[in-house]
Design brief:
CATH architecture of the largest domain: 2-Layer Sandwich
Strand content: 15-25%
Organism: Massilia yuzhufengensis
Number of domains: 2
Mean pLDDT: 90
Largest sheet: 5 strands, antiparallel
GO biological process, one term: negative regulation of bacterial-type flagellum-dependent cell motility
GO molecular function, one term: diguanylate cyclase activity
Number of helices: 10
Structural class: alpha+beta
CATH superfamily of the largest domain: Reverse transcriptase/Diguanylate cyclase domain
Radius of gyration: 34 Å
Low-confidence stretches: none
Strand order of the largest sheet: 2-1-5-4-3
EC number: 2.7.7.65
Distance between the termini: 110 Å
Number of strands: 10
Pfam families: GGDEF (PF00990), PAS_3 (PF08447)
CATH class of the largest domain: Alpha Beta
Shape: elongated
């Protein structure tokens, strides 16, 4: 005779004490607010361990609001009240203040309880401590920001890279076109850099690139000015709202700062120290002008400077 199978159907339980025990044994903090009086009719004892405030101190929604960080308070209260008035279940993340003055990230999950006629009877919900999750999210965001910065930064010289220039140049071009202000570019090439590498070696060549980049970056020190490495031994200065005279002043300042470094270059054809050649130009972009055509024009001026003997600035067509 086969043995009877056990009855696995759930057993109904009408003892409210059981439910309370279950609720109070979780990490989540249950609570209930009477809608008419806006007073707490229950909050789990776990609240004291988390925030330091005793359950008996949670009398009304004012106590809840007062214990929200002031930077989050108004937005959180306005949102929760509006959603509750609409009878919409919702959740809110905010920083709660502990009795000791610290703060804990809370996720409040709210359910609106309605009467048979549809009117709001009460709000019930759970508070969850999400501090560790928020800290992890903040760390991830910080790392993402750091990676984004690094992705726009030349790893060797520390100045902006070609990607940064290619991203910002079209933006500054459109701004200049819209505002009618001039935009200047200076393209820079280290003179006889191949000979420098052949003579001093690539390690010293990398140091030369770093020192030149520092001089160019220091020379283009305005809040909107950008120094970027285009690749190899070539750099560019992007100078928004800068006319031709001001652009030449910036270029001359960069050359002066480089001369002051007195970097030896025994194989240079322009002297005994490292020098640079520069092509410069200024434009107020019109509707028919093209950003890449203008950049190509500045490149040609750079090669005119090199053809004319190097260690100079060419800012006009020849």
């Amino acid at each position: 005779m086969p043995l009877p199978l056990p009855d696995t159907r759930p057993v109904a339980c009408d003892d409210p004490g059981v439910y309370r025990t279950l609720l109070e044994s979780t990490r989540a903090i249950p609570w209930r607010i009477d809608w008419a009086s806006m007073r707490f009719t229950y909050i789990g004892p776990q609240i004291e361990e988390l925030l330091g405030w005793t359950p008996s101190s949670w009398l009304s929604v004012n106590d809840w609001a007062d214990r929200i960080h002031e930077d989050d308070r108004q937005q959180t209260v306005d949102f929760c009240v509006a959603q509750s008035q609409k009878g919409v279940d919702h959740e809110a993340d905010y920083r709660a203040l502990t009795r000791d003055g610290d703060q804990v990230w809370i996720r409040d999950v709210v359910h609106v309880v309605r009467r048979a006629d549809g009117s709001v009877d009460s709000l019930v919900g759970f508070m969850f401590d999400i501090t560790a999750r928020k800290q992890a999210e903040d760390k991830i965001l910080q790392l993402q920001r750091e990676l984004e910065v690094l992705s726009y930064r030349d790893s060797l010289t520390g100045v902006a890279n070609r990607r940064m220039f290619d991203t910002l140049y079209p933006v500054e071009w459109e701004k200049a076109r819209a505002s009618g202000e001039p935009l200047s570019l200076v393209v820079i090439d280290i003179d006889y850099f191949k000979q420098y590498n052949d003579h001093y070696g690539h390690v010293q060549g990398d140091e030369c690139l770093r020192r030149v980049a520092q001089a160019m970056d220091a020379g283009a020190s305005g809040p909107q000015e950008l120094c970027a490495r285009l690749g190899g031994e070539e750099f560019v200065l992007m100078l928004p709202a800068t006319d031709a005279d001001a652009a030449r002043t910036v270029a001359e300042r960069c050359r002066k700062l480089l001369r002051q470094q007195e970097l030896p270059h025994a194989r240079s054809g322009t002297g005994r120290t490292v020098t640079v050649s520069m092509g410069a130009g200024t434009i107020v972009p019109g509707a028919q002008d093209d950003a890449l055509v203008f950049l190509d024009r500045i490149d040609r001026r750079l090669y005119q400077a090199k053809s004319a003997g190097r260690d100079r600035i060419c800012d006009t067509e020849t």
